[in-house]
Amino acid sequence: MSMLIQNAEFDGVETDVLIEGNRFKAIGKDITSPDAEVLDASGMAIVPTFVNAHTHASMTLLRSYADDLELHDWLTNYIWPLEEKMDEEAIYHGARLACLEMIKSGTTCFNDMYWHFHGVARAVEEMGIRATLSSVFIDFSDPAKAKEQRELTKRLFREVEQYSDRIKFALGPHAIYSVSKESIKWVKQFARENNLLIHIHISETRKEVDDCLALYGLRPVQWLDKIGFLGPNVIAAHAIHLIDSEIEILARNDVQVVHNPVANMKLASGSMPFGKMRDRGIRMALGTDGCSSNNNLDMLEEMKVAALHAKLLLRDPTALPAGDVFDMATVKGAQALGIDCGKIAEGMLADCMLVDLSNHRLAPGYNVIDDLVYSADSSCIDTVICDGKILMRNGCVAGEEEIVAEARKYKQKFQ
Amino acid sequence: MSMLIQNAEFDGVETDVLIEGNRFKAIGKDITSPDAEVLDASGMAIVPTFVNAHTHASMTLLRSYADDLELHDWLTNYIWPLEEKMDEEAIYHGARLACLEMIKSGTTCFNDMYWHFHGVARAVEEMGIRATLSSVFIDFSDPAKAKEQRELTKRLFREVEQYSDRIKFALGPHAIYSVSKESIKWVKQFARENNLLIHIHISETRKEVDDCLALYGLRPVQWLDKIGFLGPNVIAAHAIHLIDSEIEILARNDVQVVHNPVANMKLASGSMPFGKMRDRGIRMALGTDGCSSNNNLDMLEEMKVAALHAKLLLRDPTALPAGDVFDMATVKGAQALGIDCGKIAEGMLADCMLVDLSNHRLAPGYNVIDDLVYSADSSCIDTVICDGKILMRNGCVAGEEEIVAEARKYKQKFQ
Fold it and tell me: What ipTM does the predicted assembly reach?
């Protein structure tokens, strides 16, 4: 199977792009490939699709269920009671809705943490995108629960082999306040033995820091460093409440950080110290977090808010320019997950989108990256390709009406 | 001419809405009107359209021309040189593109300040939306220029009568640093004599405050109060660098403030003291500013950023909840402009939109206002009605391809 994308604008120049199998084979002028399916991209720009580096996809089912509340009220009276009603079937339908929304807004890869692993995996498999999936690990220091979670993790690690290469397995210890020290260490060891990524929330709230100080006399990053947890396979979401020495620890351990500006603002969690992390060379990707704290999975919006937030925080209009935040949303997310997508280059996985340059939001058209970061919305995206296959064409995804109809049933089911 | 919108979801209940002429005539169950054009709105919610309370519409032609730059570099090396190339024809094409973008994202009324008044007015007239238009008044304390600007203002005030009732005239003194004291006073007097609104930038930058202190020994709001300029007919855009006593002055004079969070963040101008203004009961509307500092005119996005910004600024997730920011973007903007739109109620001007509840971003559908503020993008909007006339149906606006094509020509013309 090969596909020839003709006459696409690539870095400002009309270009042909040949995909063979699931990778970019050739990029240049006047490429010929007699057997390839031809896709005319005249009037469109070809750009990489996004990598959403931290989310809880199935929380689409909680979208706009509870907003503008104090964190404790929000969690205990709204989010947790609803999550208890979610079985694997609900998780599956939520994840399908999430994949649909991601495809529509140009995302073809995400890093997830949630319950009912197979519900999410089945949705990702069917929808044709990529995901690094972790089954959230929570034991609240209960030894029986810890044992159960370890067994589940080992079982899921074996069972993930049934899925295609688009699905990767990662470990998902929720946070230091919800996972025992013993289990945190077990996760680290299991990751080492099996060469796995670890996806964890770090220092999202001030309470997490205060509790850690009270319990261990150390701040979260200091404590995680002390027990030998940190390393380049750790993907730390949020990373807000950090002092300079913790930023130094993260840099020294080459921990990968995911910035979630929309959720951090919406929950008033605080501001990730973007400038200091950037200056210290910490690797940063971008994520939307789940729909209960965002309330969408739109990386176009997340890029803009990230850029705006950095400029406000640093009082500097040159901070986090469009090109840099676009990289965070694409290639840097891919690198965090160890997947060779996020960039249009020969040999890379064929994940890309075609952006309609005749869309009003992209006119006059001085700079397509600036336009995507600061002006576009999902209506600008015409075609989405993942793993060499077309997932959206002319803005349409196969089966979308049914996916939305199934998701809408949960409004009644949950209330 | 009458139109009957049937089976629309209104405040959660299936409702019919009858429009007669340009106003809502009846809202309720099972309305009949044999002569009315029927519009089936099954599966859609009816909500008011937005009022963009501060923009420079024709700056769409500068979209993504210059981003992520220091303010002085940005203005002097990019924005001003390009603006010098803009004649009335360019302004017209820029304003058409702006009106198209606004309609597509649910805005049917805007408050504008720019050059070449008739270029903007002609576009608004053709596109069918409402606007309060001011010809920007700048004299840089040059008496000859001041005389010319006053004559122009008087002439345009007479000439605006050629347009429909959808177009209102306002005065647009740019800012206290670009308009002489004498002209500021003249504007105030002319507004009083002719019952006009005054649209002005106030305290957008720290430099404006420092210069005012150096020149008059007073801060901008203090000085404007002293010369008797302030009042309920003053619409103050940005209003960032204010001390408590200035907030008190604005409140005492019932000045109307327009919040522009996206532009304020993008240019790193600072944060409008939203919480203090809210607590003092100052009337606040919402605006996108021009496309060179945003880079779009999307009030859906502006609402979300306003809510996120307030929560971050006040460290309070309950600050500026969805319902309140929706009101700022609709009825409060309309009230600021003295136009009885922005609300779906019998007797009000018939400006409204139909939102497609089968859009994936609005599923499962717990709360349509929360969904619009926190999740939607323009792809959720199916139909837009202004002044009783349909401007968009099934997401399509008449003539949009030509409008975009004309605007795209300026990429070559300007470079």
Answer: 0.98
